[in-house]
Amino acid sequence: MQPLTDGADLLIGRDGELSRLAGWVHDVAAGRGRAVLVDGEPGIGKSALVQAAAAVAARAGCQVYRGAGDELGQALPLLPLLDALRITAAAPDPRRGAIAGLLRGDTAPGKGADLAAAAAEQLLTLVDELCHAGPVVLVVDELQWADRATVAVWGRLARSVRQLPLLLIGVLRPVPRRDDLRALRRIVGPAERLRVGRLTEPAALELVAKLAGGKPGDRLERLADGAAGNPLYLTELLDALTRGTCLDVDEAGIAELTGGPIPDSLPEAIADRLGFLSEPTRTVLRTAALLGVGFSVADLTVVADAELAALLPALDEARAAGVLMTAGDDLAFRHPLIRQALYDELPPGVRVVWHRAAARALAEAGAPVERVARQLLPSVADPAPGEPVPGWVVGWLREAATPLIGQAPEVAVALLRRAVRDGDSAAGVLSCRLAEALYRVGDFADAERVATRALPRTADPELLVDLHTTVTQCRAMTGRSAESLAALGEAAGTPGLPARHRARLLVLTARTHRDLGEVDTAAKVATAALAEAGEDPWATGWALHVLSLVAMMRGEWAEALPLFDRAMATAADDPALTDLGLLLRINQAVTFGALDRYPEALAAAERARERADRAGSVVRLTQAQSALGQLLLGSGRWDDALAEVDVVPDDLKDPSVACCDHGVAAIIHFHRGETAAAHRHLELAAPCAERIGGRVVESLTLARGHAFEQAGEPDRALAALTAALAGEDEGEGLLADAVRLAVETGDTATADGIGARVHAFTAGAEVPHRQALRLHCRGMTERDAAALLRAADGYRDAGRPLPRAQALEAAAAAFAEAGDRGSARAAFTHALGLFEGLGAQRDVARLRARFRALGIRRGPTVKHRQATHGWESLTPTETKIAGLVVEGLSNPQIAARLFLSPRTVATHVSHILAKLGVHSRIDIAREATRKSASG
Q: Any residues with CB less than 8 A from the CB of 115 and at least 6 apart, and which?
């Protein structure tokens, strides 16, 4: 009696599938990665095939990691990958230990951090590091039961396999048909999808013969036909017949039925196997079934409340019977259907009690919060009417709620709802945590309701501040910030309230005034908060943050810089203020950019990105990447800008950040004449723009204007820009283009109105680009070539090549209109050179056509045409990275060498592969050798 998954010897009729898998294994061993989906019905042999491929991979020197989704664990993020990659607190290497600590909340980047998203980023880096050590095969079985975070990480890895020696295998059933799983099928091409079908009739009979020990007789053959080519069914059926002595092989080697009971379905055949086990073994197996398809022996000893020595006889019997098998250092049921059969033996009410007892045992043993929560969830899903939540659960939630909210907020909501009861001594704490969890899952109305109801019953000043924070955030998210002011004022005036808590409430008040655009009031309240803060770093740091925002909103950029320094010094040594420190660094980078201090701006943004990446703060990482992308756009490093804004997928970004990033990319693509790519970014931005309503995102607005222009609709382009400029914000990045469009369409009133607005807010400005903007807009409306040349000089001093080229183009047109062809030619030549340096081919073509019509040709200069393919097409950054790839450095190592993020490096490597027309890092090295040999 041999279980099907014991080895490849029973993989009969699967030569074609095995050959494809083995070929993919050999490819990854040679350095060429691939993402593969293996699908088929339950019991068809998918896992056995992949296990055989994993054995081939191990013999080929690959590192093999395997995990599996579990129906019980769907609500908890990343469990299949954490199991596969052996993430435990006891892991010896720093990366795994850091991920485990992050999920425990030990190293969270601040309250409210999304620990699952942060861990996902670290898992991606870990896979990158493992691939640098050698080829990797990473298998996620039962992918249809995996949580959405696991599926998202699988998808991101699938997009990066071209640059890693990674064979990524997903094994799944055809149902359930989830949208995220459909997306994986779109990522993985048809050539990498392996559909495992039913065995052919000859293959099925060959398997029966091997299992029975003889050629099937007529009755056995007819019985086997009923299994419909399902290997698991055939195996369980033949094993049941063997156990029941219903099978005999005669002297001629014919295996035939001899009578007796015959299972008439796969579940019945599995039940027959289990029926031969002793009752003590079945009891142990039912306990194991609570833990899932795969489980650790350590957890089983805890839940069974037994020493390992006492469990060994049962575990040995289960393995001998083909019920359990080894899975690395753990054990697993041979097939999920076997585990399900054992689980279903327990009545639902009994299962709930057993799960709760398992949860308590794990909690008392100090198990990670996700393992305890996994056992508690069934009692929440099907609670007994009127049954109170046990006191130990309430106590556990008081300690575990914060990391659980960060890791799995939906699970936290489910558990906390059941635990919150009026009159309970823990109700205040748990209500506060429930409100926080509801806010995290986007249920702002319920979060506000829970927090508001808890406030009158809360005397603890810490909880009071937390609850007011949640209420204020909920109202801000629903456009009702003003409603918070009265309650915050009343709370701050509570008699006996400690000064530091009053300071924190004043900070919330100041932030609310700032959100409402009440800048002067925000500054006044933040100053009062600073005075009350005393030695409290939280209140001090956030009060300084509000004051820095006020300075930025007033355009007092230079005055904001010392505020950043003071606030960052306050936040530097406090782990609870990690998030504030990151936010300050991002705003500091933006401020340096506004002051035309681009080297400092780029350095600050890179530091913010690196620190956000290290802290695991996905929110701040995406903001830092976006700020860096905008700075690179402004400073003319467009290829680097495209790499930065494409690093993190949209589903991890705030919708306003995603809009900004797509706007930056679309602007660059429009200028380069890459219309399809530009429109693709506008389409991707559309759902994000819907989510933020009428909020103006300058880069996206400008990109939409370019789209209208290119479609020959300058009037609509102007309307899009002027509509965005109708708000109170100045929309500085839109002004020059709005004036240009107004002049070109003959709308002098609009041109004059915007020009007056520019003159008003740039009056007395000392920043070069603002002085240049004033001259640029005036020069366009007045056809003043001299002013436009001075504007171009100002943009040059500011380090902004695109507006400089645009000012020179306008100057050339003004000179030509005035009949000064020599000056027109000089300005035209300079503008053309700048556009060519940016790769702005659409602008180059437009400029040449415009001045060709006037009979003006460019002056003498070195002509160059930017290559689009091959080594000559690589940007300076890409050339450096390609050289380091050739040296054998991994993405994290390259990132450390060049002060980039690993994800940015990965994006650059993808661009290098595309430009060189190759498929792997090994191909890059091969092409470099050829290039060197050829001269």
A: 102, 103, 105, 108, 403, 406, 407, 616
Give the three-class secondary structure for 197: coil
Whether the predicted pLDDT of 2 surpasses 50: no
∠ at Cα 812 (811, 814), nearest 5°?
60
d(CA 64, CA 625): 33
Q: Report whether 57 contacts 25 (CB < 8 A).
A: yes
**Torsion sign across C-alpha atoms 198, 201, 202, 206:** positive
Q: Which residue blocks in 692-728 are alpha helix, DSSP H?
A: 698-710, 714-724
Write the CB contacts of 8 (distance below 8 Å, at least 6 apart in sequence): 18, 48, 52, 55
Residue 117's alpha-carbon distances to 88, 659, 895, in angstroms, are 18, 20, 21
Residue 534 zone, left/alpha/beta (φ > 0; ψ -120 to 50; rest):
left
Neighbours of 510 (CB within 10 A): 29
CA distance 146 to 68: 7
Helical residues (DSSP H) of 276-307, grouped into ranges: 279-291, 297-304
| The pLDDT of residue 34 | 95
| 0.90 surpassed by pTM | no
Average pLDDT estimate for 118-129: 90
Give, in order, the Cα–Cα distances in Å from 643 to each of 187, 883, 900.
20, 18, 11
CA 497 – CA 490 distance, rounded (Å): 11
167: β partners: 34, 137
Alpha-carbon radius of gyration of the chain: 33
Report, as an integer, the average pLDDT of 817-831.
92
Instruction: Please write the tens of the pLDDT for every residue from 258-312.
Output: 988 889 888 999 998 899 999 999 999 999 999 999 999 999 999 999 999 999 9
